[in-house]
Specification:
With 157 residues, the protein is mainly alpha-helical. It folds into 2 domains: 45 residues, no CATH class; 104 residues, no CATH class. 68% of the residues lie in helices and 4% in strands. Strands 1-2 form a two-stranded antiparallel sheet. The longest helix is centred in the middle third of the chain and has 35 residues. It is elongated and about 75 Å long. The relative contact order is 0.13. It binds zinc ion. Zinc ion (ZN) binds next to loops.
Length: 157
């Protein structure tokens, strides 16, 4: 029994099957017989949506948390030196938060408009946010992974 790699989703399946058990792409398509194949749009949208939706929720929750945390930190200093320290910390974290914010916008656009290009832009911007403030990578890495999955698992139209 030979195995065949699905051209649509990359899963290996038996050449005895007439279609991929994972995504239902016909075997002729994966054998490159020149048979055109288009994944059902409903399937594409579902895959893209779930990843991007979770990514967006985590991203937005993180942003809301950050805004409260950093606005609190900036005003909590009891003396001038503490306020300066908090001000520097806020200034350092700002580019990271701005990148996360823009990433969340692209993330939302990808989700609403079902465009993988926006999903990719979101994924890259989340990565940029992670690089800008590596200390907080754990808050952004989920969005990075999910956005890239959302992008990668969505075939080109
Ligand atoms: Zn497949």
């Amino acid at each position: 029994m030979a195995m065949i790699t699905c051209k649509e989703c990359g899963k290996e399946f038996s050449d005895k099957a007439d279609k991929c058990p994972n995504c239902a792409a016909p075997i002729e398509y994966s054998r490159e017989f020149g048979v055109p194949y288009e994944a059902p749009p409903s399937l594409i949208k579902k895959k893209l949506s779930i990843c991007l939706l979770i990514s967006l929720i985590v991203g937005v929750l993180y942003l809301i948390y950050s805004v409260f945390y950093w606005s609190g930190a900036a005003s909590s200093g009891s003396d001038a030196y503490e306020q300066i320290g908090a001000g520097i910390a806020t200034a350092l974290v700002m580019p990271h938060l701005i990148a996360t914010f823009i990433a969340a916008i692209f993330n939302a656009l990808g989700l609403i408009m079902k465009k993988r290009g926006f999903a990719l832009a979101g994924a890259i911007l989340y990565s940029v946010a992670m690089v800008l403030f590596p200390m907080y990578f754990m808050f952004v890495i989920i969005e990075v992974i999910l956005s890239f999955i959302g992008y990668a698992r969505t075939p080109k139209y």
